[in-house]
Amino acid sequence: MYNNEQTKILQAQTTEWLASMNAKNIIEIVALNIETLRNLLRFHEYRYYIENDPLITDREYDTLYKLLEKFEQENPGLITADSPTQRVGKGLVSSFPKVQHLVPMLSLENSYNAADLVDWDRKAKELSGLADIEYCVEPKFDGASISLIYENDQLYRSATRGDGVVGDEITINTKQIKSVPLSAKFSNYGIEQIEIRGEVLINKSNFKKFNDKLIEEGIPPFANPRNSAAGSLRIKDTAEVGRRNLEAFLYHVSYFTTTNTAQPTTHSGMLEMLWTLGFRSPKKEMLVVKGIDKVIQHVEEFETRRDTLPYEIDGMVVKVNDLALQEKMGMTSHHPRWAIAFKFKARQATSKLLGVNFQVGRTGAVTPVARIEAVAVGGVTVTSISIHNEEYIREKDLMLGDTILIERSGDVIPQIVKSFAELRTGSEEVIHFPTTCPVCGHQLFKPEEEAVWRCININCTAQIVERIIHFVSKDAMDIKSFGEANVRKFYELGLLKDVPGIYQLNYEAIGQLPGFGKKSLDNLQAAIAGSKLQPLHRLIYGLGIRYVGDTTAKTLANLVDDLKEFTDFTEEQLQQAEDVGVKVAGSIYRFFHDVENLHTLKQLEALGISLKNQKKRAAISDTPLAGQTFLFTGTLIQLKRSDAEAKVEENGGKIVSGVSSKLNYLVVGDDAGSKLEKAKKIQTIKIISEEDFIKMLPV
Ligand code: IVH
């Protein structure tokens, strides 16, 4: 969409705008150049959401965005429908009107193995009269399908699939999806009106974050990203749609009107056109090949890579590439004859609900866990599944002895999709919820506004153990070689009684335990010592404050220089922080006003655990990263890019947005592209691998 020349110009303009942000006449500059500013924001949205390769930091983007927003607020007459600010949805939608698709949204015929594809190819050849057909093969995105209509280069309308003929109009929600352009130059191809089909998804990492948050709030999570994308498209709070970070892949042009013949004549050409116009089409994922053998080889190979993709796919779609041939082959009332889906191995399976155990978590929440007949699904054997709470059991209509459908997509924890009430024999039994804690026997309690029963005995063994397990876990203090089993063992043996106890372990006694040789003892000791300098957000998350997941923990860590400062925050002040609402603020406030918690913090500090903000700490320390500039390119394997960037900043380094002589280190991951080439030409830049980078970090 943007060639090198345009990229350079836009990036230079960005630098110029950022440099003049503090100029007195900045508003005048905006007034004279408002379209330039909008174009810059569109360009950076494209780099971020379509190319996945941002050139500026989030903060720099926000600075420019806020400038445009401020100007438009003061000059509402100058707002255009395709201004980047017009994605922002406010308020509630009352209903989604029904609209008819320009062309019915058909389904796809399915195939499950090579023989099915060979058979389909034979029929396609018969229909076309050709000896060999050129196919375009692309992923089958596992999300919710949508249609988009553009008229005169502007997004005019968007709808859900509905029954294929009539769907729900969801334009306002679709505008929240940053990879859907609000305007696109279809006129360059002589196109006046166009209907495009695609799939809305939530990528795996955003889905996990979203589900973790639901679990943290005691709300049952979604079974898979597909359900959560479909649900998100139809929620009435538009701003919430924006927060869910939906993405859209556009893979089919179903209709267009034109005054000339300047359009692509192949499906792959259409995908190229969409990509060029700023859409996220599967241009990079598609393969154009002749003959079904190569198709089969490709789809089978792609299936092995399924789990490494950032989003869920449930198969591949094979399409006849020549559009004239597609037209000739036509369609049935159900599916086009020129396309077929190749479905990957199912990640659903049926099983039997044998019994229910009740587990007590670190917040005292009592969670029912279903014991099920062992079943292999998505490559693992599942024998138990969380069924969340009493309401969920009722909603899913679960009974002991039921036949159930379960699903495990990717690395998502298995979920029950439904029970088969029609298969009941009459011997099934109702699931009874306990009234007392299954661990300590204390009476259970359920606040009216919550769905979860809790044990409110602070000394309940289960809660103490779970709190310690959470503290040492990967997303919290990440004390490797500690793990759940060791926590339980040490607790049972009286070697560990609370969180500060982690730092007071009697290694001599542990050394006497079977399986604890010198090496494992040394590892454990080193991991515990290393955790003392973990970034503050990990400590905050590890403390297990209710409703504070790892994202909120990061927000909180940025507010203070020292954790103890939270004792001075009011609930109102806490609510000023991003994503911190009344409920979360209340919980944080209570945590930092609880005598026992404050005592724990004091103990931790006395034991050498830093309560200080890492940025301050890095400034005084002398790490090899201090004062150096870094840039990451390509896919990192061990670290998430955002974590790697955070590490740089925590250790006194700086992230820069592009390759220039000001760059000290370029950290190169897999499939690095133009940045690497550019950096090679500048001798002062040190080009290092992810491993080299990790070695630079202080232990
Ligand atoms: S083409 C007229 N391509 O799968 C042909 N569909 O199970 C339109 N899907 O209804 C469909 N990825 O919602 C096509 N690359 C892809 C797709 C895809 C996902 C969905 C689509 C369709 C469903 C059929």
Topology (SSEs and partners):
Layout: H1 4-19, H2 26-32, H3 34-50, H4 58-74, E1 98-100, E2 109-111, H5 114-128, E3 134-141, E4 144-151, E5 154-160, E6 166-168, H6 171-174, E7 191-201, H7 204-216, H8 225-233, H9 238-243, E8 247-258, H10 267-276, E9 287-290, H11 292-304, E10 313-320, H12 323-329, E11 339-343, E12 348-360, E13 366-377, E14 380-386, H13 390-395, E15 403-407, E16 415-419, E17 444-445, E18 454-455, H14 461-472, H15 483-492, H16 507-511, H17 518-531, H18 536-542, H19 550-557, H20 571-575, H21 582-591, H22 595-606, H23 614-620, E19 629-633, H24 641-650, E20 654-655, E21 665-668, H25 674-680, E22 686-689, H26 690-696
Parallel strand pairs: 2-11, 19-20, 19-21, 21-22
Antiparallel strand pairs: 1-6, 3-9, 3-10, 4-5, 4-7, 7-8, 10-11, 12-13, 12-15, 13-14, 15-16, 17-18
Helix pairs in contact: 1-3, 3-4, 14-15, 18-19
The structure holds 2-(butylsulfanyl)adenosine.
Compute the number of strand runs: 22
Strand content: 15-25%
Q: Major β-sheet, in short?
A: 5 strands, mixed
Shape: globular
Low-confidence stretches: 616-620
Query: How far is the N terminus from the C terminus?
Result: 43 Å
Mean pLDDT: 90
Spatial strand sequence of the major β-sheet: 2-11-10-3-9
| Helical coverage, percent range | 25-40%
